[in-house]
UniProtKB/TrEMBL annotation, chain A:
Cell compartments where the protein resides: Cell inner membrane
Pfam families documented for this protein: ABC_tran (PF00005), oligo_HPY (PF08352)
Any one GO MF annotation of this record: ATP hydrolysis activity
GO biological process: one example: transmembrane transport
Name of this chain's protein: Dipeptide ABC transporter ATP-binding protein
Coiled coil residues, start to end: none
Length: 615, 313
């Protein structure tokens, strides 16, 4: 692919600064790498590494965010000549953007203008760059929609963005970027906001378009698994600097730099737990303290939590008097047990009901029917006073977004103290001792106690959320996507902390996650949810090594593996869109019936719309 | 369609509540319609007779029923002060004030939208400060101050426009516009300030959205990005605020119309209040409420036109 040709892009000693309150802040310093025609270069790094700044600089869009290219060259080969984009004037840049270089962004939900039709947004670039007539541009837009395999393209052109699903919108955004056949496509985290099956489709699409058109791709991502699947060459960035650059196989097999080794070590790789029955901590290079193997505790055969036939429906209101006109069947006849000191992971894609299930157990969403027993106490029968006093002392929740779940106006000490006082667990000076102990427990310096949430990093904030949950000595912690918003190295640390706490305190977790590779490392048992139902549940080994339900299989096949020698994202996969969980009033859904294919390995027998023809 | 029915139904409910409240309040107020008609020196027996004929001795509920029935059938009664049937009187004055509302809104939007967009594009730079200060000046000084300044400048000083009076557009359109211009400007300045701030806030948010970056990445020029891609998204919110301001305008109109001796709804309401012309007060309040609500309904319907995400069902 790449070779002796002159590079399409050659970035040389790029330095970008941003206006800060106290003088300039360096976004990236001294970045140099090149992209050959037809090559995919992945820039990978954690948040704040400057990877997006680099790509935005190439488009000279960084200036709109308050950035300034202070030195360096952005060589770009245009019509056989090398020009420096860093020096190009506005008109030249406008001619290049969208014509020579196409760009797609992270959020398909906000990448399209909500008040314009798809047609208008797909054609305006063609009309500007190619001077095409309305009908010619429309014809090209149709062709592009077919190329990205959007069904019923004529229909789509007339629609507005909100009428399309997230995956469909990202296809439109890609088609838009491809409109003028750019020689470089910049993809800035194009699949981060998408479900794993849609991610697989989009990755396959980008790869196919690259092969068909011969364009080069600059792929920005934080996800090492995506890098392994997509890259020819990899550029690793850290805090505005280039750490290491090389062919993808070399970077994964033989990383030269300490940081690259750390980053790679922290990435869970689907399949690497094959043959192991107990969870294992994440690998952390250079932090041997928290890398000690977790000794499994003796499992009490009596389950701590028993969920029987849990069903939760949310009303859909409408009409003149805001009556209930339909129901969202969020959780539909779900049953499982969690033994003491063990982790059950609930996995599935957005809208599958996994979060609703967690919330229903705590009665944060009131279940419609079913039974939840915690240590033989019937949670659903408790009065609201007993629910607060007893159930919520034994069960705590850790949420996804540590920004949103901590009160920005309260010192961290007070946030951790609050549950201790509310539940009357300690009084007087014992409270202070307990809080200090909790800070030690989650490995945060005691000096942090008088800080406010905004003074902490994401990982530190999530540790506070865990400390707050631990404050009341819960038996069960429901962790709803608790590590999803964290960078991989931080994610690994927090996961290890959670596993240590489990081993030492015998806590059980209901671990709600969309990330199969993480689940494979931390869970004892795994439940797969689809459209409100548990379609398969079994031990981690049973689910990952011997999946039985067709949905579990397709979910596993869509997960990118962080190993460039195992590329599993091949051609366009076409996963079926998930059907609507809204049912008319009085709809009688059938109870879930399971087939026990192996001891404690259950597979749903009901029809869940997986094999039905797409709409 | 069911959305519109829904809105009309809730509008009717609100109007009913307003009618009940105005009716109750005007009846609690001191003052006696019969005495207003016949004067304080009149014969007590004649007064009692008039009370009887007007039905003022009937239970309140019955009086209310009679009044609302009249309102619904178009029989709005007669004004005590003007000795005229109320319905045609209100229609004429509403036209006069409608002209003011329309003009001041047009002036305000025509200035506020470009100023707000300009401020948003240059957010946190001197242009933004300049625009915000201008807007603040408009908000912090009362309408009548602007009215007086405008009269001094354009009527007394330059002599371009008349300082007071009203001309019916049916008689002489040019003169009607000239007479409406100064009061509209005075009203528009206060409005403009609110709308500038609203436009700035909305546009600042929009310009940070990803689709703006996508539009730039397509190679569209900056004016297309801001004025087409950006502004199209701001129209809805700005329009909503403008609609809410119609209510505020009818409040300001009372002062401004009196200042300019412009005989519209504001002037009429003021006269009705001064003279305890109870039937006229009741009817004016009712009509103003209906007009404000209709304006907001119109805005909500227009919102659905400019923003396809709003489904009217």
């Amino acid at each position: 692919m790449a070779g002796d040709q002159t590079p399409l892009v050659s970035i040389d000693k790029l330095r970008v600064e941003f206006r800060g309150e106290d003088g300039p802040i360096v976004g990236v310093e001294d970045i140099s790498f090149s992209i050959a025609p037809g090559e995919t270069v992945c820039v990978v790094g954690e948040s704040g590494s400057g990877k997006s700044v680099t790509s935005l600089s190439l488009m000279r869009l960084v200036e709109f965010g308050g950035g300034r290219i202070t030195s360096g060259r952005l060589g770009f080969s245009l019509n056989g000549k090398q020009i420096d984009l860093a020096q190009a004037d506005t008109q030249t840049m406008q001619a290049i953007r969208g014509d020579e270089i196409g760009m797609i962004f992270q959020e398909p939900m906000t990448s399209l203008n909500p008040v314009f039709t798809i047609e208008r947004q797909m054609t305006d670039g063609l009309r500007v760059h190619r001077g095409q007539s309305r009908s010619a541009a429309r014809a090209r837009a149709l062709e592009l929609l077919q190329q990205v395999r959007i069904p019923e393209p004529e229909q789509r052109l007339k629609q507005y963005p909100h009428e399309l699903s997230g995956g469909m919108r990202q296809r439109v955004v890609i088609a838009m970027a491809m409109a003028c056949e750019p020689r470089l496509l910049i993809a800035d985290e194009p699949t981060t906001a998408l479900d794993v099956t849609i991610q697989a489709e989009i990755l396959a699409l980008i790869d196919r378009l690259k092969r068909e058109t011969g364009m080069a791709v600059l792929f920005i991502t934080h996800d090492m698994a995506v890098v392994a699947q997509m890259a020819d060459r990899v550029v690793v960035m850290y805090r505005g600097n280039l750490v290491e650059e090389g062919p993808v196989e070399r970077i994964f097999a033989d990383p030269q730099e300490e940081y690259t080794r750390k980053l790679l070590a922290a990435v869970p790789r689907l399949g690497e737990m094959r043959g192991k029955s107990a969870p294992e901590p994440m690998r952390l290079v250079g932090e041997t303290a928290s890398n000690a193997p977790v000794t499994p505790i003796d499992v009490d055969p009596k389950p701590l939590l028993q969920v029987h036939n849990l069903t939760t429906r949310y009303p859909v209101k409408g009409g003149l008097f805001r009556r209930t006109i339909a129901n969202v069947h969020a959780v539909e006849d779900v049953s499982f047990d969690i033994p003491r000191g063990q982790t059950l992971a609930l996995v599935g894609e957005s809208g599958c009901g996994k979060s609703s299930c967690g919330r229903s157990i705590l009665r944060l969403s009131e279940p419609t029917s079913g039974e939840v027993l915690l240590d033989q106490t019937d949670i659903l029968a408790l009065s609201s006073r007993d629910l607060r006093r007893r159930a919520w002392r034994d069960m705590q929740m850790v949420f996804q977004d540590p920004f949103a779940s901590l009160n920005p106006y309260m010192r961290l000490r007070d946030q951790v103290t609050e549950p201790i006082r509310n539940f009357g667990i300690h009084t007087g000076s014992a409270v202070e001792d307990r809080v200090s102990e909790l800070f030690d427990r989650v490995e945060l310096p005691r000096a942090f106690m008088s800080r406010f949430p905004h003074e902490l990093s994401g990982g530190q904030r999530q540790r506070i959320a865990i400390a707050r949950a631990l404050a009341v000595n819960p038996k069960l912690i429901i962790a709803d996507e608790a590590v999803s918003a964290l960078d991989v190295s931080v994610q690994a640390q927090v996961l290890n902390l959670m596993m240590e706490l489990q081993a030492e305190l015998g806590i059980s977790y209901l671990f709600i996650s969309h990330d199969m590779a993480v689940v494979e490392r931390v869970a004892h048992r795994v439940g797969v949810m689809y459209l409100g139902r548990l379609v398969e549940i079994g031990s981690r080994q049973q689910i990952f090594e011997n999946p039985q339900h067709s949905y579990t299989k397709s979910l596993l096949s869509a997960v990118p593996v962080a190993d460039p020698t195992k590329r599993n994202i091949h051609d366009d996969l076409n996963f079926r869109p998930i059907p609507s969980p809204v049912f008319p009033l009085g709809y009688k859904s059938k109870p879930s019936t399971y087939d026990e294919v192996a001891p404690a390995h259950l597979v749903l027998q009901n029809e869940v719309g997986l094999d039905a023809a797409p709409e | 369609m069911s959305y519109i029915l829904n809105r009309v139904f809730s509008m009717m409910l609100t109007l009913f509540l307003i009618s009940a409240i105005t009716f109750a309040v005007t009846n609690i107020l001191p003052g006696d319609v019969a005495m207003m008609i016949m004067g304080t020196q009149s014969n007590p027996e004649a007064l009692a007779g008039l009370r009887e004929t007007l039905g003022l001795n009937d239970p309140l509920l019955m009086q209310y029923g009679r009044w609302i029935g009249g309102m619904l059938t178009g029989d709005w009664g007669s004004s005590l002060v003007f000795k005229e049937p109320i319905a045609p009187l209100l229609l004429q004055k509403m036209t006069a004030s409608g002209l003011l509302v329309l003009f001041s809104m047009t002036i305000a939007l025509a200035c506020a939208v470009p100023l707000g967009v300009w401020a948003a594009v240059h957010a946190n730079r001197w242009q933004d400060t300049a625009a915000s200060s201008t807007a603040m000046l408009g908000v912090s000084l009362p309408d009548f101050f602007w009215g007086i300044m405008l009269i001094l400048l354009f009527a007394r000083g330059l002599g371009w426009l008349p300082s007071s009076g009203f001309v019916d557009p049916a008689d002489d359109l040019g003169a009607a516009i000239r007479h409406a211009l100064l009061p509209s400007l005075a009203l528009g300045l206060g409005l403009m300030a609110h709308l500038t701030r609203m436009t700035r806030a909305t546009m600042t948010g929009i310009l940070k959205q990803e689709f703006i970056r996508v539009a730039r990445a397509k190679g569209l020029n900056e004016s297309t990005v801001v004025w087409r891609y950006g502004l199209a998204n701001a129209v809805g919110p700005v329009m909503t605020v403008a609609g809410l301001q119609v209510g505020y305008l009818f409040g300001s109109i009372i002062v401004i119309e009196s200042l300019f001796n412009y005989t519209g709804m504001g002037w009429l309401t003021y006269q009705a209040l001064l003279n305890r012309d109870i039937p006229l007060i009741q009817a004016s309040v009712f009509v103003i409420a209906a007009v404000v609500m209709l304006a907001n309904l119109l805005v909500d319907l227009l919102y659905a036109v400019v923003d396809p995400r709003i489904r009217l069902s």
